[in-house]
Amino acid sequence: MNALDPAITYCINPDCHHPNPEQLEECEICGTPLLINNRYRAIRPLRELSPSSATDIYEVEDWSLEPEQMGTKKVLKILKLNSSRLCQLFEEEARVLIWLRHPCIPKVESVGSFTVSFANTLKPLRCLVMEQIPGLNLAAQVEKTGAIASQQAIAWLSQMAEILAFVHHRGLLHRDIKPDNIMLQPDGKLVLIDFGIVGNFQGDRARVGTPNYMAPEQKSGNAVVQSDLYALGRTMVHLLTGQNPINLPEREGQLLWRERVSGLNPQFAALIDNLIATSVRERPASAMVVLESLHRLGTIPSISEKRLLNASWPAIA
Questions:
Q1: Alpha helices of the chain — where are they, by DSSP H?
Q2: Quick one: which of 11, 125, 116 has its CA closest to 79?
């Protein structure tokens, strides 16, 4: 057995999911081929494999014939349902991640998504392979270590505002900012993941997102730039308090969170409150305005807008 061979290979058939020993060619239960698109082997699920979920996500090993790719760990996202709406969102996520080139957004192979069909299954599966980001998401990080200090929150807010400035500059809305969708790498840098419900400024008026973090206008299908900033503000509240915003009290639509955080800079707290204001007009107009506010607080250096908005990865061969 090759040293790169996984000990377990999962069957990606949604009706099976059987973990197979070592390097079988086909699933020992249902007969589904285990080498996906003649290249990838699923070695572990990255979240619970649930029949009610529209997607499955696995860690895979790349068994490409290219020496530099052989054995590389990547992430495979599989769309199990074939509704036209879900297929459209899946293809849009692939297109966006190929187009966006930023060190804090996962890279996707230039081929984008692909479809696999198996003789023993009734429906094709749409697949998307992307860069695997090391580390924990911020929800898991806070669960592990507890609420973060104000200085850490300022640093993370700055990083996220930089990423969103880049995304928004390209006419896109993420629409699902939350701790689960922000990865903390071992080097301390954040990466924004899961562009599964990304939209554009002309939007489709879809009521999508995660309710605990969604802005009021987004719940009505009217997401705007400030909707992502609202979700970012609610995310910061979660990180600072260690509590999901849905578990915090409210008064007249205002989230009551400040008394749960010690040593809080009042001006920084006011910025967070502005981000999570019910009215769009009371929030910062853009991610760049958030960065400028942090600079005025003396918490971060001035940032070149030109450098920020032109940040990019070199094209993937």
A1: 84-99, 138-145, 150-169, 216-219, 225-241, 266-275, 287-296, 305-309
A2: 125
Residue 77 has which token pair? 């996202």
- 147 and 272 both lie in a single domain: yes
Tell me the per-residue pLDDT of 155-192, one tens digit each, with 9 for 90 and over. Answer: 999 999 999 999 999 999 999 999 999 999 999 999 99
151 and 27 within one domain: no
Whether 260 and 267 have beta carbons less than 8 Å apart is answered as: no
295 vs 107: CA distance, rounded Å: 30
- pTM for the model stands at 0.88
| One domain for residues 239 and 287 | yes
Buried b (16+ CB within 10 A) or exposed e, 48-79: eeeeeeebbbbbbbbbeeeeeeeeeebbbbbb
15 is an active site residue: no
Q: Judge residue 105's burial from the number of C-beta atoms within 10 Å of its C-beta, 0-12 exposed, 13-18 middle, 19 or more buried.
A: buried
Positive or negative, the Cα torsion across 93, 97, 99, 100? positive
Which of 176, 180, 187, 273 is the catalytic position?
176
**Alpha-carbon Rg of the chain, whole angstroms?**
21
